């Protein structure tokens, strides 16, 4: 479970003062009513939750992973010992989305060491079954923090898909039911409301290691480590989101996040639009739509070059190169791509101490009205686009700004 560290707010418990008896209001007699039966005492909301859990909890999946990690022993040669192999274990949640047994979960639940690829072994277990079965990766979408896996050898009668809802129609205050395995407590259920329908937070894992800002559902239904990948349901039992992160003040101090009443879920419509591509990925990686450009400003990181925005350069350096204060420098443009069709142009690469920058080409400073200073900013605008959609770019070349409309075609999604 990823931990978003934020500020915590204290709370004060106030006790209401209430009359001790009816005498203070002039009443002289009290009437009693018979104790209601359990069935009669259930509120409509309680019964609704019970019905949702009874009907759809069998579609929840408990996921466990194992990853072999080789650790170097710098003094091993003194004692005739080589590198040591350790097995790291993890747990998470997921849910069935179709009769074929495909399971949606978070990418970070099944990711390999360092957030790359997938874990060495992935197993799943369904409700009321003690035995786990292996699962294989069908498709990975790191930048969306989504993954699709499929169990091997699972009895088809145990596959219970949960219906997918429409996250675009959500309203703040709606009921939200979270299912998953918090702290490894498999098949747990919590309830709350939708606190926000369009919270912008970093989600996923980009090429530079930073999360891509995306729209998320905020809920106060308790979500904790292990809930990752589990479904967030509405009062009709339809999946409206995939639990992914929490805001945890305690996690800043301990490194282990715990629910503070602010959890986030990936809107299910984002997953639904990506599902066909995940199903066709053959175990590979699915990314956000591409314009067909490469970043033209890279600096040397600890182990590889990293693309950055113009804000990483000094103002003096940008003035000397004739570049704007902020923006994404276009390094190259792929022939036949949407960017090429729109007339975007890359620059000539020049080396400087610690990196390289393209000069003489285009710099993207905004996309659909949103400021752009890095590849992640552009991806944040593109991430929910579909084939045929357009993106409106504000581009600077040679000190002159212009507007460019780029239309996404099939090549953007390959």
UniProtKB/TrEMBL annotation:
- Specify the domain of life of the species encoding this protein: Bacteria
Write out the GO MF terms.
serine-type endopeptidase activity
The PDZ domain extends over: 296-399
Going by the UniProt record, its keywords in alphabetical order are:
Hydrolase, Protease
Q: Which GO terms describe its biological process?
A: proteolysis
Pfam families in the cross-refs: PDZ_2, Trypsin_2
Question: Belongs to which family?
Answer: Belongs to the peptidase S1C family.
Record protein name field: Peptidase S1 and S6, chymotrypsin/Hap
């Amino acid at each position: 479970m990823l931990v978003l560290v934020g500020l915590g707010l204290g709370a004060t418990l106030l006790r209401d003062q209430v009359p001790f008896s009816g005498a203070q209001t002039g009443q002289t007699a009290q009437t009693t009513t018979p104790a209601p039966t359990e069935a009669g005492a259930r509120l409509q909301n309680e019964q609704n939750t019970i019905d949702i859990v009874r009907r759809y909890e069998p579609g929840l999946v408990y996921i466990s992973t194992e990853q072999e990690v080789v650790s170097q022993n710098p003094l091993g040669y003194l004692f005739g010992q080589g590198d040591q192999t350790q097995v790291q274990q993890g747990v998470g949640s997921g849910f069935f989305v179709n009769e074929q047994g495909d399971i949606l979960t978070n990418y970070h639940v099944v990711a390999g060491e360092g957030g790359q690829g997938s874990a060495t072994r992935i197993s799943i277990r369904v409700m009321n079954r003690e035995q786990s079965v292996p699962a294989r990766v069908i498709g990975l979408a790191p930048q969306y923090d989504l993954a699709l896996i499929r169990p091997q050898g699972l009895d088809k009668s145990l596959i219970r898909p949960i219906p997918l809802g429409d996250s675009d129609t959500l309203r703040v205050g709606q009921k939200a039911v979270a299912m998953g395995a918090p702290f490894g407590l498999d098949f747990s259920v919590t309830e709350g409301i939708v606190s926000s329908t369009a919270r912008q937070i970093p989600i996923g894992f980009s090429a530079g290691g930073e999360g891509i800002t995306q729209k998320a559902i905020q809920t106060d239904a308790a979500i904790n480590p292990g809930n990752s990948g589990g479904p967030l349901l509405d009062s009709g039992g339809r999946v409206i989101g995939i639990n992914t992160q929490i805001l945890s003040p305690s996690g800043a101090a301990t490194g282990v996040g715990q629910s503070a009443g602010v959890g986030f879920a990936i809107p299910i419509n984002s997953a639904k639009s990506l599902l066909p591509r995940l199903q066709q990925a053959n175990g590979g990686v699915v990314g956000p739509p591409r314009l067909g450009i490469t970043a033209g400003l890279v600096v040397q990181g600890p182990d590889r070059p990293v693309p950055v925005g113009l804000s990483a350069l000094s103002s003096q350096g940008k003035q000397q190169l004739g570049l704007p204060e902020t923006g994404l420098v276009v390094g190259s443009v792929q022939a036949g791509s949407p960017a090429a069709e729109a007339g975007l142009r890359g620059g000539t690469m020049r080396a400087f101490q610690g990196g390289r920058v393209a000069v003489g080409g285009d710099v993207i400073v905004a996309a659909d009205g949103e400021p752009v200073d890095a590849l992640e900013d552009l991806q944040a605008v593109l991430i929910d686009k579909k084939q045929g959609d357009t993106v409106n770019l504000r581009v600077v070349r040679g000190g002159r700004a212009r507007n460019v409309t780029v239309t996404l075609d099939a090549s953007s999604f390959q």
